[in-house]
């Protein structure tokens, strides 16, 4: 279990699954900052696929700089993402 | 592959129309579709995420031509047909 903490930098996995997912295309591969955890919820992808006992994972609010996503804008964009959608960014940026 | 619904950040769709004092429904049939979906989810006919998936499975040209609740009705019909609960016609 990753157990991300507020302020940690995470990268959204650059997935493009066949079925339903709650990862908007505009954050895939992008680096953001954990804001807070919204509790544990059944993974929407597996619920949509009809899996009887879907994985239950923490959902995190992640903030992205609008400039990183759109190339402009000084505001932040926040997206709620299941744990398996994100990975920790190492200190060397990889 | 990304589906047709995933248009966040894409240009070319024009400005969002924001209605003053927008009612929840613009026609009675929309309210019925809303209620029908709630009843079907609550009774376990399908899950909410399966409903979302069914909306996203619409053919792109149909999806883009349909209104919000037309998409809902399409998804309900798809899911009921797939479960053998709705016949042709």
UniProtKB/TrEMBL annotation, chain A:
Record domain Nitrile hydratase beta subunit: where: 2-87
Family annotation (Gene3D superfamilies): 2.30.30.50
InterPro entries: CN_hydtase_beta_dom_C, Elect_transpt_acc-like_dom_sf
Top-level division of the source organism's lineage: Bacteria
Stated name of the protein: Nitrile hydratase beta subunit domain-containing protein
Taxonomic placement: Bacteria, Bacillati, Actinomycetota, Actinomycetes, Kitasatosporales
UniProtKB/TrEMBL annotation, chain B:
Domain of life: Bacteria
Gene3D superfamilies, sorted: Nitrile hydratase, beta subunit
Domain Nitrile hydratase beta subunit-like N-terminal: 1-87
SUPFAM superfamilies: Electron transport accessory proteins
InterPro entries assigned: CN_hydtase_beta-like_N, CN_hydtase_beta_C, Elect_transpt_acc-like_dom_sf
Protein name per Swiss-Prot or TrEMBL: Nitrile hydratase beta subunit-like N-terminal domain-containing protein
